[in-house]
């Protein structure tokens, strides 16, 4: 079996309702805390080549963030790049990284208001037992 992923990504989301169950069964909400991993040995293969970035200084800066070792000089470099008035060109594709759902919702709503054309509404249906608290949106 092959497991592929970046364990430095955001942690799994465990709701307050789920926390008691998780904490009584597992050491953490991460997949590798499943007890099945105690029953066999895994061979770890770490992919080390970075394909998306080419500037060695920038790669070092990104890795310092990833490893939580960034220092004040690194933060200063990042802060110099911050432009609160930046608006990406309309013809370019940008991914927004936000710290809260509220900021993401604000950006999404701004972009949705720019769409010209008819509004379509699609209604989902649920079959079986699936609590409303687990839905990503209203159904």
Number of strands: 0
Structural class: mainly alpha
**Main pleated-sheet profile:** none
Please mark out the parts with pLDDT under 50 across 5 or more consecutive residues, or reply none: none
Helix tally equals 4
Mean pLDDT: 88
**Alpha carbon gap, first and last residue:** 36 Å
Assembly form of the protein: single chain
Radius of gyration: 21 Å
The coarse overall form would be flat
**Helical percentage:** 25-40%
SSE succession: HHHH
Report the β-strand fraction as a percent range: under 5%
Concise account of the structure shown:
With 139 residues, this protein is an all-alpha fold. The chain contains four helices and no strands. The chain has a domain at 19-113.
General description of the model:
- With about 140 residues, the protein is an all-alpha fold.
- It has a domain at about 20-115.
- It is built from four helices and no strands.
- The protein is flat, with a radius of gyration of 21 Å.
- The chain starts with 18 loop residues before the first helix and ends in a 26-residue tail after the last helix.
């Amino acid at each position: 079996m092959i497991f592929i992923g970046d364990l430095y990504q955001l942690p799994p989301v465990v709701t307050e309702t789920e926390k008691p169950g998780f904490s009584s069964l597992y050491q953490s909400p991460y997949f590798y805390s499943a007890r099945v991993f105690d029953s066999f040995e895994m061979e770890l293969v770490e992919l080390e080549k970075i394909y998306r970035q080419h500037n060695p200084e920038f790669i070092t800066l990104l890795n310092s963030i990833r490893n939580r070792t960034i220092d004040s000089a690194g933060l200063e470099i990042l802060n110099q790049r911050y432009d609160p008035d930046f608006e990406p060109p309309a013809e370019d594709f940008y991914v927004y990284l936000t710290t809260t759902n509220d900021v993401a919702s604000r950006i999404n709503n701004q972009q949705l208001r720019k769409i010209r054309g008819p509004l379509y509404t699609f209604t989902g249906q649920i079959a079986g037992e699936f609590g409303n608290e687990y839905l990503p949106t209203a159904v």
